[in-house]
Amino acid sequence: MKANAIMVDAKDNVATVVEPISKGADIHYFVKGELVDLKASEDIPANHKIALAGIKTGEHVIKYGETIGAATRDIPVGAWVSHENIVSLPRDYDSELK
Amino acid sequence: MQFMGYRRPDGLVGIRNHVLILPTCACGSEVCRVVAQQVNGAVHIINNSGCAEVKVNEDMTQTILTGFAANPNIYGTVVIGLGCENVPHDKLLDNIRKKTNKPVVSFGIQEIGGTVKTIDMAVRAARQMVSEASQLKREPCDMSELILGLECGGSDATSGFTANPALGWVSDRLIEMGASTIMAETIELIGAEHVLARRGATKEIHDQIIMICKNFEEHLAGVGQDCRHGQPTPGNKAGGLSTIEEKSLGCIYKGGHYPIVEVVPEGVRPTKKGSIIMDTPGYDIACNTAMIAGGCQVIAFTTGRGTPTGHAVAPILKITGNKQTFEKMKDNLEVDVSAVTEGKMSIEEAGQVIMDELLAIMNGKLTLAEVYGFSDTAIDRMCRFI
After folding, report:
1. How does DSSP classify residue B194?
2. Which residue of B has its CA nearest to A88?
3. Architecture of the domain spanning A5-89
């Protein structure tokens, strides 16, 4: 079996699929050298993200081990994560300068 | 490692040997185009600014135009102005002479009496310069003479884990050879600025990286705008990039791993060697413009969606990590590193492919955009035209 999704950092709660995925199909991605499976709960276009865990409204979405935004609605595991259901967060530059 | 370059009288080294036909303002741009079309070896740029400018915009225009003329890929410059613009041709000529001792002449359309006579005089001047330039020979030059611009545009999710890390590998190897690389696009650092700032060689540079992002957001907020409206772009979103943070975190990989030794203003040549940040907008064409004005002899440009862009002053090498994009857009893209996405190629191997193409281009191989004669310029604006 071949990986068809990339989880960049072990802290991530999303992975990026490298080919179009149909609803109900399995994605395969490496976690610390081991291939893991997950069922997609909806169609996901190539290069888009899939939720590796349920993400509640307001919770941070993590990719590259860093926050890439917050969920604007509850995102179930296996769902498509996109600009439709996550939003950018304001920066706190002053605390970064300390 | 060495490359074959053209040594200039100001001590810099170019990888092209063009005569630049440079308009002071929009009203000189068409005459410049006609002159460049008549003289093989001359190139021109389109300038949509240069007039009806407040001081900050005038300063930016002068930084960019004088930077183009001083770019080491340029043998000499023929300036063409109208006569009533913010900075007329003879003043721009003086400003160029403050940066470089390379050949420069200038003409004013109103002063000479119309475009036909101006074209006649400018063609003769450009012909003379091209004739002189053609007698120069490439000579071996040390890699430490190189400033490579690192750019990404039309990004998609593949950019962040294939093309950008591979370009970051190239940047690291070049810095080890004594070269400099410039990463720009301040807007596309937002959301990743805290990660990038850790690479600052000093606390001061760490804080400068945070401050350019803070200042940019505040500048936009001053006129009631938020960069998140246009970033990510619709194309980025269709390519799987959902927020500016996600785009930025992928963007910064192209800068490699070495300490950042200097943060320079838009269009300004670095004073240090190594990994440099330039404070520019995220708009790729404005970035290329500013980095070329800042002395980059060549730009390595990663793209997920594909772009034809090029520049008359410096070659732009284009790289994609998206196989479908390469297949569709191969008339405009040099390097395909999509095998990384498929797990068939390592980042190092992809970096070596980019490095080989970069060296070929530095030694004279034309990029696709150069073959087509493409040149896109965008001079950044701080304020509305007046």
Report:
1. H
2. B243
3. Roll (2.30)
Domain at B18-133, CATH homologous superfamily: Response regulator (3.40.50.2300)
- The C-alpha atoms of residue B195 and residue A40 are separated, in whole angstroms, by 31
**Sequence-ordered alpha helix ranges (H) in chain B:** 26-38, 55-70, 89-99, 109-112, 115-133, 157-158, 164-176, 193-197, 203-221, 234-238, 244-251, 284-293, 323-329, 347-362, 368-372
Say what the ipTM of the complex is. Answer: 0.97
Contacts of B239 in chain A (CB under 8 A): 47
Phi–psi pair at A95, nearest 5 degrees: -75, -25
DSSP code per residue over A48-70: -EEESS-B-TTPEEEETTEEEEE
| The three-state (H, E, C) secondary structure of B129-185, written as one string | HHHHHCCCCCEEEEHHHCEEEEEECCCCHHHHHHHHHHHHHHHHHHHHCCCEEEECC
Go through chain B and tell me how many residues it has: 386
pLDDT band at residue B342, thresholds of 50, 70 and 90? confident
In this structure, are residues A21 and A42 in contact, taking their beta carbons and an 8 Å threshold?
A: no
**Token reading at B68:** 């183009």
Distance from CA of A35 to the nearest CA of B (A): 14
What contacts B173, CB < 8 A, 6 or more positions away?
A: B351, B355
Q: Which residues of B touch A83 (CB under 8 A)?
A: 232, 237, 242-243
Q: How many angstroms separate the Cα of B308 from the Cα of each of B149, B159, B169, B302, B357?
A: 17, 17, 24, 12, 17
pLDDT tens across B183-208, in order?
999 999 999 999 999 999 999 999 99
User: Helix, strand or coil for residue B347?
Assistant: helix
Nearest CB to B242 within list A66, A86, A89: A86
